[in-house]
Each structure stands twice: as structure tokens, then as C-alpha cells.
Hints:
The chain contains five helices and nine strands; from the N terminus they run H-E-E-E-E-E-H-E-H-E-H-E-E-H. By secondary structure, the protein is α+β, with helices and mostly antiparallel strands. The chain has one domain (43-219): Muramoyl-pentapeptide Carboxypeptidase, domain 2, CATH 3.30.1380.10.
Amino acid sequence: MNMILLPPMNQKILGRMEPAASGDTTPTGNAPMAGRPGSDGPLVKIAPPEFDVMLNIIYASDRNFTGQPIYANAACYLHPAAAEALNRAIDLAAGQNLRLCIYDGYRPIEAQWALWRHTPDPTFVADPRRGSPHSRGIAVDLTLIDAGSGQPIDMGGPVDDLTPRGFHGYNGISPEAQKNRMMLLGLMASAGFDHYLNEWWHYQLYSPRNYPLLWETAAQTGLMGD
Length: 226
């Protein structure tokens, strides 16, 4: 069985009873807010060759704001509607000699709790009792890379920069980086995604509450281990 490396406090309490949206407590695997894939079908695995993207799943490594791996396995999954919109974004990027590099997609509610325990700041981390678009499978964290070199283009700062420097419209970065952020914004908006003002890398479908929240026990992606 794979182990998920979290800070000691998180290792002890991940999977215990958590407050549900109503304020009640129920075991995480059976919480009322834990929807199951509906008639639209299961989550779609996002990977080449079906999706011409590069994957760099930061929550499967220590290269995220917690400094610890949250996922046991590196993979990306999305709701079918988000996967369809992502394909439109891939085509639009290709027309500009660019590709998408994905850092995160579906994020199990179990993982969202781990992030919230580390940084319980709703400016940057969605309260899992309210639900994150990532936990609905309709949000994606990503950047643009040059299709020829495979190198990320300048966005003025890293993904997971939980400071005002990561905000859309931040003018303390170079004009080139500002232009690149606006290009990503335009590309993703044209593909059907909404954006989040505090994170230049985060995009999601509109009307997120139309999609169910999914615990890993429902999604069964393997992200959190066997």
C-alpha cells in the first residue's frame, strides 16, 4: 500500500471525521457532500496521446506550497465537460505554437482537507466544507509552454505563488509576463473556462455547483494510493 507523505499532523488526522457542509460530522468516505459520477460518465484521464499536454502534477511531489506530496500517484482527471473544453484549449494553443502544461486537475476532497489544514486561508485555498471546483473535476491548474522547446513561457512567477504576485492583473512583473498571462486568459476563456482572480494558473467551468463533489472513494482515480 502506497503511503501519502504529509506533515505529521495531517498524517494523523487525514481520513478522520470532518465537518460536512451542514456542520454535522460524518466519516469522510460517506459524507453527504460526496457525490458520485452521474449520467455524464466517470472522470476522464488526461494524458497523451489522447490529450496533447505535458503533465507536471505538483501535488504528487514536494514542489507545492505545503512542501510535501499530497498525492500518492501523479495523474490528471477531469469531468467529461471539462475535458471537452480542455481539448478546445489545446487546439487554440497549438495555433499559437504553444502547448499546455497541467499541474493539477481533479483533486479529491481528502487532498483538499490536507491543503486546508496547512493553509486555512480562503483567499488561496477553498474551504473543503464549501467545496473546491477541483474536487468537482472541473478545474485545472496550468501554464503555457513553447511547443518547440518544451519550456514554459514567462508568467512572472511560479504556480502556487500564494501572494498578490500570483493575481491576475498584477503589474509588478515584466510586460512580457503580463502579456503571456493575458494570452492564457484569452485562450482559456475562448475554450469555455472561467478564471479565478487570485491565481493566474487556475481555470474552471462556469456554474461549478452544478457538478458533484467527489471523494476519492467515489472517483477511484488512485491519486491517494491503493
